[in-house]
Structures are given as structure tokens and as C-alpha cells.
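Researcher: Here's the sequence for the chain we discussed earlier.
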Amino acid sequence: MARFRCPDPSHGAAEVPLKANNDRVFECALLHKFWRREEGGRVLLVGLISGDPHPAVELEGTDAGTTERRLNFMVDVPRLAGALDFNTLQLTPMQWKVVSRVDGKSNLEEIRLLAGLTAVQAEQVIFELEDLKLIEVRRKGGK
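Model: Thanks. This is the structure I predict for it:
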């Protein structure tokens, strides 16, 4: 997947990479969000808030094998991977906040809000719980 430079002027000349949330929406570390649009053979990044189009500047080193796992908080639904043994589990308070709200029906955004976590904290905890094989994250309606 291609990596683009964030066109937001607040970055100045720094080459801040945009991360892909999916194949069309990108965001940088400062949460500037853009929609990828192709127009006349050119790729444009359109600000989700401002609506301003910017020519896309592709960054070097765009290996498809180096893409990060990304979550879609409005669509992804976590569920428990199996039965939890509360006598042997050693989780951090943030991990408990998340795992205690996983019901297989609520999406990640609902769980994040109930747990009182920021998006960055929730994403980190979700990945930790996945790595511990305590939860699985699926797309809503997916298998």
C-alpha cells in the first residue's frame, strides 16, 4: 500500500507519513485526516474537515509487507477468543477495562468510550489483547 506525505501546512517541510485506515482514508500522527481521490489520473488527498484538495506526495519505501495493522473503530467488533480464567490472568487496569466490556456485539468505539480510553490507548490495548490471544477482532458482518 502506498504511503503519502501529510499535506497539512502545520508540518512545514517535514515528511510526516500518512497511515492508511483503509484504502481511501489516511491520517497522520497529529490526526489530520484525508480522503484519497483520483482525478484525471492524478491522486489527490482531500481534507476530511476542510475539503481542500492537495496533490498526493508519495513517500519512498512503500513495501506492502510493512503495513501496520489498523483498526476501524466504527466497524470492528472484538469478541473473546475463548473462556477466560480469571484466576490466572494478569492484566493491566486498561486491559481489564477493555476485556470486561467485550461482548461480541459492541464495536470498538463503543467499548473505547465505555472504558474511558483515548483512541490511541484503546488501539494499543486491543493489539495487546490480540497478541495475548484473549480476543479476536472482526469486521461487523464478517466472519
